């Protein structure tokens, strides 16, 4: 793995970047001026982040696995301690083709029907490999999505969901998450 140096990170022109940030040099960032990255973040190889005009905000202690794609033109927010496994795709916009509209960026805007809505992945949210997150989705604090799932709606705090479309299959222990997070934050302060 070959990560960008601190100097190269600064040269990207990001809106902000914290410390202890490891971004593989194969990662592509479009609209860097609208991307904010917290501290203790790792972005693995072949990932793509697209921002602007809305912001993509990545919190602290976040991991984006191999080939994660964040299409954040309508905004994506990833909370602290969240993790997206390999090949997860997050879309803040998508074309509505059901009513017979044309699709794709090469078509004039007046011939398309685009749904755009900010995506919010709360603190401690987990998204399993190969999953797809659609516009307007909100994953609550500690929400988890199983591999190969399609998420079209909100997933509540601590809920575990899986499938296509994703549906509830269990719960996470949020009290344990709080205790473990407190240990990391206390160690950082000490």
Provide a descriptive summary of the structure in words.
The protein has 190 residues and is mainly beta. It is 12% helix and 33% strand. It is built from 2 helices and 22 strands. It has helices at 6-11, 174-189; strands at 16-17, 21-23, 28-30, 35-37, 41-43, 48-51, 56-58, 63-64, 69-72, 76-78, 83-84, 89-91, 93-95, 114-116, 119-121, 126-127, 132-133, 138-139, 144-145, 150-151, 159-162, 167-171. The strands form 4 sheets. An 8-stranded mixed beta sheet has the order 2-5-8-11-16-19-21-22, with no helix packed on it. A 6-stranded parallel beta sheet has the order 1-4-7-10-15-18, with no helix packed on it. Strands 3-6-9-12-17-20 form a 6-stranded parallel beta sheet, with no helix packed on it. A hairpin with a 4-residue loop joins strand 21 and strand 22 (167-171). The longest helix is centred in the last third of the chain and has 16 residues, at 174-189. The chain is globular. The mean pLDDT is 96.
């Amino acid at each position: 793995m070959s990560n960008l140096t601190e100097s190269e990170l600064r040269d990207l022109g990001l809106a902000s970047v914290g410390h202890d940030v490891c971004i593989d040099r194969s990662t592509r960032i479009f609209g860097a001026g609208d991307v904010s990255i917290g501290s203790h973040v790792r972005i693995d190889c072949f990932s793509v982040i697209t921002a602007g005009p809305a912001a993509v905000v990545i919190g602290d202690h976040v991991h984006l696995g191999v080939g994660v794609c964040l299409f954040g033109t309508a905004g994506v927010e990833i909370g602290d301690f969240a993790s997206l496994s390999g090949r997860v795709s997050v879309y803040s916009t998508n074309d509505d083709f059901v009513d017979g509209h044309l699709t794709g960026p090469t078509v004039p805007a007046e011939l398309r029907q685009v749904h755009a809505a900010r995506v919010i992945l709360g603190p401690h949210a987990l998204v399993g490999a190969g999953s797809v997150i659609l516009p307007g989705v909100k994953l609550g604090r500690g929400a988890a999505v199983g591999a190969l799932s399609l998420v079209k709606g909100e997933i509540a705090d601590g809920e575990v969901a899986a499938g296509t479309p994703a549906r509830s299959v269990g719960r996470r222990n949020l009290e344990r998450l709080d205790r473990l997070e407190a240990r990391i934050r206390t160690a950082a302060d000490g």
